[in-house]
Write a structure and sequence with these properties.
Helices cover 38% and strands 1% of the residues. The chain is mainly alpha-helical. It is globular and about 75 Å long. Bound molecules: heme C (HEC) (2 copies). One heme C binds next to helix 15.
Length: 442
């Protein structure tokens, strides 16, 4: 039996306050409910009931700090990460950056169903908005920290086709990078490998050039490039932690209603509210899309049919969970600053069994309206299509003994489907500050 496999039925408290919420948050949620009850003399019982349930889904608190990457200057790291995120020089052919697939104009997701970088990928590039709230990264959870997730794309042939060397090159040649690096990490990168004789056609720094940039460089450290790669990934993570949107109409509506304030100006009307009731009730979406992040952070097989038909071929969690455990950059490894902490422990205890074949991570639904197409292959072009799928489970695939028992055809009316979609559309927050969405290389 795999202890991490969802779902175990939530306790009534968990259900009320959202699964696995920290205590403090649960208290805040409780307070909201109490405030609601306090004013009950004037409030409609239907509103009270709505508030009680809605408080499990709002507000979204900031992600907790990542103990595996405590950096001396997170702001400088975020700025460094911001540059790296948009820097096409990091890719093999100099045309692709993270922003190519995680498009800031498209909720930091990819408008194309399948990512296409240096070669066609088999999965869709998901949104990076609020990404730091995830417990596992990638559709199959190949990474256990946000920073280690970035190491893959930096080197994967499918994605950027870049190379550690190219990364370090850009550090050497660009003084802005060198400055930000020194500020963020209060140390100089260990870069001995770049002092070795270059392959034909490859440029390397002379020891003199390098020590001019980083006076306390240790040219004897064999692990140099790995360290720099991990640091760059951590800077990218510091940047991605900035990719958060403000309150959505749903958040604002619940807050105003709880405070007894007018909700008139908030674009959250009867349809959205009926949609929420379906979401948190009969349609059972909340079972997996739970809590203020609208994700239980775990993996499920929804049976969504593959993009190009046929039988599903992607093992999902089954493969990626094993890759994670073998990854030298995971939270238990030498580049993690918290090798005995909670994140590392979760990875160490992870048991992957064949029942996880074809499971994918529950995505957040915050800002979901911004990021079509949907699912791990971008199989569905619209939210209407996603809801229609859940409603009927038509064309659902996957071996029957692997299939989630939770998912059953719902039997919604056309109007109910529209309400559910209206609710999903009310989860779009105010935009990420422009400072972080702009390309720093005009
Ligand atoms: C060629 C397209 C492409 C590029 C370039 C790319 N990614 Fe991705 N990204 C993807 C795909 C596809 C996935 C899903 C991967 C998986 O499930 O294994 C993904 C997943 C992620 C995730 C996990 C999100 C989640 O919800 O779990 C993060 C974080 C991420 N990418 C960050 C980055 C960063 C940082 C860069 C630049 C260093 C980058 N990506 C470059 C396509 C891309
Ligand atoms: C059994 C758990 C489970 C339940 C119940 C569930 N979902 Fe999902 N949901 C998932 C998983 C897992 C994915 C990703 C599936 C994939 O990529 O193949 C997903 C994907 C989605 C997406 C696509 C998001 C994106 O960014 O690609 C939407 C929208 C969505 N679900 C809405 C709903 C709604 C609405 C309901 C209720 C009718 C619901 N879900 C019920 C687990 C669940």
């Amino acid at each position: 039996m795999n202890v991490l496999r969802f779902p175990k039925p939530p306790s009534s408290d968990e259900r009320r306050y959202g699964e696995k919420l920290p205590k403090r948050l649960a208290l805040a949620g409780g307070l909201l409910v109490l405030m609601g009850l306090g004013a009950c003399s004037e409030r409609d019982p239907a509103d009270e009931d709505f508030l009680r349930r809605a408080s499990a889904f709002t507000p979204l608190q900031p992600a907790s700090p990542d103990e595996t990457m405590p950096l001396p200057d997170l702001e400088a790291a975020a700025e460094l990460g911001h540059r790296l995120f948009f820097d096409q020089r990091l890719s093999g052919d100099g045309t692709i950056s993270c922003a190519t697939c995680h498009d800031p104009e498209h909720g930091f997701a990819d408008p194309r169903p399948l990512a296409d970088g240096m070669g066609q990928a088999t999965r869709h590039a998901p949104t990076l908005l609020h990404v730091a709230h995830h417990r596992w990264f990638g559709w199959g959870g190949k990474a256990d920290t946000l920073w280690s997730q970035a190491i893959g794309p930096l080197e994967s042939a499918h994605e950027m086709g870049g190379h550690r060397l190219a990364l370090v090159e850009s550090f050497f040649r660009d003084e802005t990078y060198a400055d930000l690096y020194n500020k963020a990490f209060r140390t100089s990168p260990q870069i001995s490998r770049f002092l070795e004789p270059a392959e034909p056609g490859e440029q390397r720094l002379s020891a003199q050039e390098a020590t001019a940039l980083w006076p306390d460089l240790d040219p004897s450290d064999q692990n140099a490039t790995h360290g720099l790669l991990a640091d760059s990934a951590k800077a990218l993570a510091a940047y991605q932690r900035k990719l958060v949107t403000g309150p959505s109409p749903f958040d604002r509506y619940v807050e105003a209603l709880a405070a007894g304030e007018s909700t008139e100006d908030i674009p959250f009307g009867e349809a959205e509210r009926r949609g929420f009731e379906l979401f948190a009730g009969k349609a059972r979406c909340f079972v997996c899309h739970s809590g203020p992040f609208f994700s239980d952070g775990e993996f499920h097989n929804t049976g969504a049919p593959p993009l190009h038909g046929g039988e599903p071929e992607d093992p999902g969690r089954y493969r990626d969970g094993k890759l994670l455990q073998a990854d030298p950059f995971n939270a238990t490894g030498e580049f993690s600053a918290d090798r005995e902490g909670q994140t590392a422990e979760r990875t160490r205890l992870l048991k992957i069994g064949s029942e996880q074949w074809g499971e994918f991570k529950t995505p957040t639904l915050r800002n979901v309206d911004l990021t079509p197409p949907y699912m791990h292959q971008g199989q569905f072009e619209t939210l209407e299509a996603v809801v229609a799928f859940y409603d009927t489970l038509e064309n659902s695939v996957g071996a029957s003994h692997h299939q989630e028992q939770i998912l059953q055809p719902i039997g919604l009316t056309e109007a109910e489907r529209a309400d559910l979609v209206a609710f999903l559309r009310s989860l779009t927050g105010t935009p990420v500050p422009e400072k972080w969405t702009q390309d720093p290389f005009p």
